[in-house]
Amino acid sequence: MLRSDHIVLVYPVWNGGVPALVRAFLEQTFRPAFIFPDALPNHSLGFVEALKQRKALSGKTGRIVATMQMPAFVYRRYFHPHPERNTLRLAGVRPVKESLIGLVDTTNSRRRTRWLGRMRALGGRAA
After folding, report:
1. Which of 12, 11, 27, 8 is nearest to 69 (CA)?
2. Which residues on neighbouring strands pair with residue 98, listed in sequence order?
3. Contact by Cβ (8 Å): 7, 57
4. What distance in Å separates the CA atoms of residue 41 and residue 93, rounded to the nearest whole number?
5. How far apart are CA 100 and CA 103, in angstroms?
6. How far apart are CA 60 and CA 6, in angstroms?
7. Which stretch of DSSP H or E encloses residue 121?
8. Which residues face 11 on adjacent strands?
């Protein structure tokens, strides 16, 4: 991640949120020693102090791609996504954009082709 310019998280929504494996990855990777490289070891940072620290991933951009069986607007409205977005922002990643892909279990091949085309275009320009 430190060598990348753009960070992308792709996952299926599980029980209204991030799958446990993705959450565990974020919890283990984004520890204070990683995201605040100048912080003193074994020193607990308060909220204001953490905001003032140099961020390890400053200058990087991010995108979250979440797939789901429900319509994307329902997810956005009722589940208030994405705590992982806050984790990326705390580490200095800005902006963090999102792509919510709903109704993935559809048999509509045109819709699926459109999603794949959109993801290919985003990946081509690292957006």
Report:
1. 12
2. 64
3. yes
4. 23
5. 10
6. 6
7. helix 109-124
8. 66
Give the number of residues written for the chain.
127
Residue 27's identity, in one-letter code, is E
Residue 110: which residues within 8 A CB-CB, separation 6 or more? none
DSSP state of 104: T
CA 26 and chain centroid, separation: 9
**Does residue 43 sit in helix, strand or coil?**
coil
pLDDT tens digits for the chain (127 residues)? 999 999 999 999 988 888 999 999 999 999 988 999 998 887 788 888 888 889 999 999 999 999 999 999 998 888 766 778 889 998 999 999 999 999 988 778 888 899 999 999 998 887 6
Provide the residue type at 86 as one letter: N
